Amino acid sequence: MPLIDINKPEMIKFLVETYEKTARLRMRWNTHNADKLRFAATLNREEKGYEDIDVTKATMELGLPGLKRDSITDARNRRLKHVMDGNIPGIESLQKGHSIVEVDLGNPKDDPKLARPDTDLSIDPIMRPVNPKQKKIIYKGRPYFGREVYLTNRCKAQLPEDRYYFAETSSWAYGWRLKDSSLKSRGPQHGRVWRLSREISRTGPAPDPAHYQKPRKDPGVC
Fold this sequence. Notes:
By secondary structure, the protein is mostly helical. It has helices at 9-32, 34-41, 52-73, 75-79, 132-138, 147-156, 160-163, 192-200. The longest helix is centred in the first third of the chain and has 24 residues, at 9-32. It is flat and about 100 Å long. The model has no long low-confidence stretch (mean pLDDT 80).
């Protein structure tokens, strides 16, 4: 939004009238609420003579019972000696109980990358190993083999959980590892895909004319 030009005479007149109107409204409000303002500004109770140091002192006194209680509770810990030769977790303890093998998501026999020592902090593999039968598809000739056939068998025929250890994209959150569920999924009982394809292939929003429809069994009626 462009800035207004305050040098124009009509704009100066408009601003002056606006300021005067605002001042009159404020004066009217102060006059109308004069009694309330006078009552709020008058101290009707007896002064206690408190200062800032008194407020701080009262706040500190409220916390003294808690300090006494904590001191009694921590008396036993203060008498304990410091552990000098304890077992401090190191690098070899970072992956304990959290690796892909320990959570039963992979087997080192199937994927040699998972057979690593505890001191190895490299990133876990993202994808599962490729089936040797699928690898052979790449090195054979087309059209029944080759790169396109390999990608079809690898990506379209296999579920994401058969190719990856974890859900790498947010779109996989729905339907991830459905085989682990006791409720088995099944396809739709009605032709929703066919209905969607028919609606998309139409030429426009209006329905097709009657003569576009397929003829019935009776040859005399179209």
